[in-house]
Amino acid sequence: MRVLGVDPGLTRCGVGVIESGRAREIACLGVGVVRTPSTDELADRLMAVAEGVEGWMDAHRPEVVAVERVFSQQNVRTVMGTAQVSGIVALAAARRDLPVAFHTPSAVKAAISGSGRADKRQVTTMITKILGLESPPKPADAADALALAVCHLWRAPMSDRIAEAEAKAAQLARNHRARLADAARERGSTGGQQR
Known about the structure:
single chain, alpha/beta, Nucleotidyltransferase, domain 5, 5 helices
């Protein structure tokens, strides 16, 4: 499976592509950052991020896009920019019929380092080891993008099984409710005939 990880940001949007191989091997196919100057207008910055991320999608042809879920922070302006970039990335993926998976920062940290409270340095160190990189990806946004991709790769099979089980349970519940409704109607029509 080929996964594009995106750490959304308006000034620096981290992007990283990984691919799973045999025996749980994971290869890094590319990592980088899409940058926009803070002096540019918002619309121009969003367009630049969209073009940059779309370029990565077109060049690497991922099967799924993993994006960091916007998390409440103190700085509302930062959250707004991150949310806008997340929307841009989801739209670009949808235009290519690519599924988008959102992962919380703590889920990514836990998947990569074993602790949902790991700091950026720990995540960067672990992602460097996991992918067998010669040097740590820089800046941290690039390492975070790779961490998102690896997190998704590792968690997708379990998430798929959970979703499949939930869908099956929902179908069983619908079937059960339909049988109950049929039985109630049958009792009602039978009761009416006996009078």
